[in-house]
Amino acid sequence: MKVILANPRGFCAGVNMAIECLEEVIRIFGSNIYVYHEIVHNKHVVNRFTEQGVVFVDSVSDVPENSILVFSAHGVSPVIRQQARDRNIRTIDATCPLVTKVHTEAIKYANAGYNIILIGHEGHDEVIGTMGEAPESITLIETPEEVAALEFSEDDKLAYLTQTTLSVDEAGRVIESLTKKYPGIESPPKADICYATTNRQEAVSELAQQVDLVLVLGSQNSSNSKRLMEIGKSAKKQAYLIDGVNELLPEWLEECEAILITAGASAPEVVVQELVQHLEDHYQAEVENAVVREESVRFPLPKELRILQSK
């Protein structure tokens, strides 16, 4: 059996920054630390921090006054920030800078009187945070069919933004429908879908042609991980999203000569290596590293945390 390891895979710069941020908060403050939603959408990462005493909450009201509250990589709305201030909670913002970019764009377009069409998945943490920046100005859509139902006129001031973790092809189809219906619609000078999402999707698209099975390491609530699985399926391959080797089913490997393994942007490398070790031990797998694109992006820790480190 041949195993191809997709590169790039796993942690992106935003996830690395958020995890490093929370680790530093633990080191500096010790205990009484809370995180609004999951720091990143991965079960293994969340469980590791839970074991260290971190409490993940879905409401600011669950955070005691004078505690430390970290905002996750997916960002939060201004309402959440105000709720924290009202409760005298000290906050540290681990929002991915690429998500912050979309928030900034939403504010800019809203202040300029635009109706903003946000392409994304309803209920996703990132989408909730972005819509919270200008709720009266943003309309959320997900498919080309929803474009057809929009009731704006060609004379309306329109702009579109996208969730950072969408499938490039998926978003492209919606954008094509939007620009066809509204030729004058505006968009940011640089695309919102993040570099890491694009690179991981490109790697799966290219390498899936060489295998019988695509295994994506990541949690079920990880949007970018789901997109990788969908790309594998669109290549007419078996494709599964699993959290770790314990979810691997032997029947998937029957008559399987080549497997592509990748990992979503919030999945730790340790789960990849555990899966590879299992395939080497039980299926005599021969492993090949396939590099489709190099990555060197790194984001600094939040300013407030860098100040604390210097003291």
UniProtKB/TrEMBL annotation:
Indicate yes or no for the key word Oxidoreductase. Answer: yes
Tell me its EC number(s), please: 1.17.7.4
Q: What is this protein called?
A: 4-hydroxy-3-methylbut-2-enyl diphosphate reductase
Q: Which GO terms describe its biological process?
A: dimethylallyl diphosphate biosynthetic process; isopentenyl diphosphate biosynthetic process, methylerythritol 4-phosphate pathway; terpenoid biosynthetic process
Report residues binding isopentenyl diphosphate: H41, H74, H124, S222, S223, N224, S266
Q: Which gene encodes it?
A: ispH
Pfam families linked to this entry: LYTB (PF02401)
Q: Its annotated pathway?
A: Isoprenoid biosynthesis; isopentenyl diphosphate biosynthesis via DXP pathway; isopentenyl diphosphate from 1-deoxy-D-xylulose 5-phosphate: step 6/6; Isoprenoid biosynthesis; dimethylallyl diphosphate biosynthesis; dimethylallyl diphosphate from (2E)-4-hydroxy-3-methylbutenyl diphosphate: step 1/1
Which residues does the annotation say bind (2E)-4-hydroxy-3-methylbut-2-enyl diphosphate? H41, H74, H124, T164, S222, S223, N224, S266
Q: Which HAMAP family match?
A: IspH (MF_00191)
Residues bound to dimethylallyl diphosphate are: H41, H74, H124, S222, S223, N224, S266
Which CDD domains does the record cross-reference, listed alphabetically?
lytB_ispH
The active site is formed by: E126
Natural source organism: Gimesia aquarii
Named from the GO MF annotations, one term is: 4-hydroxy-3-methylbut-2-enyl diphosphate reductase activity
